[in-house]
Amino acid sequence: LRVNVSDNRLAYTDHPFEGDVNISKDFCENQVEIITPVCDSTDSLYETLSNINNHVKEVLNRQGEKLWNSSNPPRVLNESEIRIAKFEGADKEKEQYREYLKTRYGVWKMLLSGIHYNFSFDRQAEEVLTNRFGTDKDSLYLKNLLMKKHL
Question: Which DSSP string corresponds to 14-66?
Answer without folding.
Answer: PPTTTT-TTEE--SBTT--EE-PPP-SSHHHHHHHHHHHHHHHHHHHHHTTEE
